[in-house]
Amino acid sequence: MTQTLSYAVLKSxxxxxxxGEDWRGFxxxxxxxxxxxxxxxxxxxxxxxxPQGRLLFDLFxxxxxxxxxxxxxxxxxxxxxxRLSMYRLRAxxxxxxxxxxxxxxxxxxxxxxxxxxxxxxxxxxxRGYGLPAPIDARLVPETSYDTHRLTVGVPGPVDxxxxxxxxxxxxxxxxxxxxFKKGCFVGQETxxxxxxxxxxxxxxxxxxxxxVPLPLGAEILSGVRxxxxxxxxxxxxxxxxxxxxxxxxxxTVDGRPVEILQPDWITS
Length: 268
Description:
- By secondary structure, the protein is an alpha+beta fold.
- Helices cover about 15% and strands about 35% of the residues.
- The chain contains five helices and 16 strands.
- The chain has helices spanning about 25-30, 75-90, 140-150, 190-195, 265; strands at about 5-10, 15-20, 45-50, 55-65, 65-75, 95-100, 100-105, 115, 125-130, 140, 200-210, 220, 225-235, 235-245, 250-255, 255-260.
- The strands form three sheets. It has a six-stranded antiparallel sheet with strand order 12-13-14-11-16-15. A five-stranded mixed sheet has the order 8-9-7-1-10, covered by helices on one side.
- A hairpin with a 5-residue loop joins strand 3 and strand 4 (about 55-65).
- It starts with 5 loop residues before the first strand and ends with a helix.
């Protein structure tokens, strides 16, 4: 059976426009992703970290002829603009909110014309900015896209509290969110050391179970031993921060059996 392409308007996302003659050098020294080689019409995934290397903001960087768009969480857009403005100093850049609509297309079928492949994982589909709906695609709510993302096993902003989680714990290194060859960026020293020394003790992994959503923050247990905690949940699916050295045995949350999954893109 041919799967129908679905698309959703992502009202939880918003844009920041960055332009000016210094925009590349300005962003290059801040975010985890390389922008020196970014071309117009190309999209890359990354983040802005604290100086200690913890994740503050996730973002997609979309190349334009006169600068970039940053596709960010709408609720924290102004906070990100404020932080970027703090770093601006004498750089000749302009930072303004954008009004263009963000959307995602996912499911079966060829790539929709003009849409950009999600740089994190092919299974996530495509991202569109101010584009008409793909031909023959069915409009679905944003929650359907979140279900698809959880099914693929990819965490989202709801799964990390700003300033608590390291980007590698949120799988940014496996989702093309960190360029380890680009040189310095804010939080680079800690991030590179974790990767180089293999100091990754925790990762976000998907859970499957039966029944109603699990309580957020609930402990995942193997017997009486704590394995992790739930970071987001919907019926039958959840995301959790898991201790990698404790993935063995049978797992429960509030007495309910759960299965910890390790998708191919994590183990390959």
